[in-house]
Amino acid sequence: MKIAVVEGDGIGHEVIPVARRALEVLRPDFEFFPVEVGYGKWQRCGQAMTEEDMEALKSADAILFGAITTPPDPDYRSVIVQIRKTLDLYANIRPVSGKGFDIIIVRENTEGLYSGMEKIEKDSACTVRCITRKGSERIARCACRLVKSRRELTIGHKANVLKSDVFFRDICIAEAQRANVPFRECYIDALCLDILQHPEKYDVILTENMFGDIVSDVAAFLVGGLGMLPSGNLGDRYALFEPVHGSAPDIAGRNIANPVAALRSAAMLLSYRANDRTGAAAIEEAIQQVLARGIRTKDLGGSATTTEFGDQVIRELARRSRT
Ligand code: NAI
Ligand code: MG
């Protein structure tokens, strides 16, 4: 497999190399090539991403992605949103699991408030929340497929206020009934609290774009913060794997970022794209081993650096692949 590696900006330069090394240890057959996009590139060339960069991403079997710092320019279009749209990565899969709970958040990734239909005028501003039948059906089908090997679907929405969510909810319910999967629905604000109080109640959670973005950061609280959560951006043709967190400029360059989210994103790349569940499980077990030894980065209350934590995980993986 050919893997495009986009470190991006900020802590992307620190956590993505750790994830790449894990893949290199497990899969010497993989080929890696870097693609440089982001704020750093924008500062140097005035462009955050070029057409050639997009072509390079399209030539890969999977993309390992860090995060991009949003440049201070009102005309700037988010790089990751552009990639998700161009490669039609419509399903954002965000697993959140810990003691007693195992949740997968399935977020529609191409429409809603992130459609880019917006304007700012002198005394008002407006963003259109466009939700389509095609977009809702395919994300609902994706969530229902996941439920098949699991328990239940929860549809998170705000249909009591938003017509666009009445539309979204009704399509999701129709798809769940058609797929014959058990489902319930929940208002998204109530869901944000309940997921913290009763995480064990939830299995697959399906939402439109922005609500999924928010509820997954909320759920990060359950597992120790943003440094822990991976995600997969999947379409019918392309796939990109990235931590849920951003470029964290507040801690960038200090070698203290938690590389677990990036490592878990590499594990998702293996299981979702390379059908290599053994490799994915090996990464998760190695992370657990290292954490169990009390080695943690600062966000988890420890004092290990990014590279120290990464080295331990890589050593664990190398030891396993020898035995
Ligand atoms: P952020 O996720 O970068 O940081 C939020 C907080 O969590 C910060 O205090 C940060 O230090 C901490 N944090 C995040 N990841 C961590 C890790 N691995 N280890 C330890 N602590 C960690 O979100 P923020 O600050 O809102 O955004 C920073 C920049 O990242 C912005 O320019 C934003 O637009 C961009 N961003 C990019 C994304 C992408 O490219 N996919 C996603 C989210 C944000
Ligand atoms: Mg987010």
What key attributes describe this structure?
single chain; alpha/beta; binds magnesium ion; Isopropylmalate Dehydrogenase; 323 residues; 10-stranded mixed sheet; binds 1,4-dihydronicotinamide adenine dinucleotide; two-stranded antiparallel sheet
Describe the structure.
- The chain is α/β, with parallel strands linked by helices and 323 residues long.
- A hairpin with a 2-residue loop joins β4 (91-98) and β5.
- The strands form 2 sheets. The chain has a 10-stranded mixed β-sheet with strand order 2-1-3-12-11-4-5-10-8-9, sandwiched between helices. A two-stranded antiparallel sheet has the order 6-7.
- The model has no long low-confidence stretch (mean pLDDT 96).
- It contains 11 helices and 12 strands.
- 43% of the residues lie in helices and 20% in strands.
- It binds 1,4-dihydronicotinamide adenine dinucleotide (NAI) and magnesium ion (MG).
What is the element layout, followed by pairings?
Elements: E1 2-8, H1 12-26, E2 31-34, H2 39-45, H3 51-58, E3 62-67, H4 79-86, E4 91-98, E5 101-108, E6 118-120, E7 125-127, H5 133-148, E8 153-157, H6 163-179, E9 183-187, H7 188-197, E10 204-207, H8 209-219, E11 230-234, E12 239-243, H9 260-273, H10 277-292, H11 306-322
Parallel strand pairs: 1-2, 1-3, 3-12, 5-10, 8-9, 8-10
Antiparallel strand pairs: 4-5, 4-11, 6-7, 11-12
This protein binds 1,4-dihydronicotinamide adenine dinucleotide and magnesium ion.
Magnesium ion binds next to helix 8.
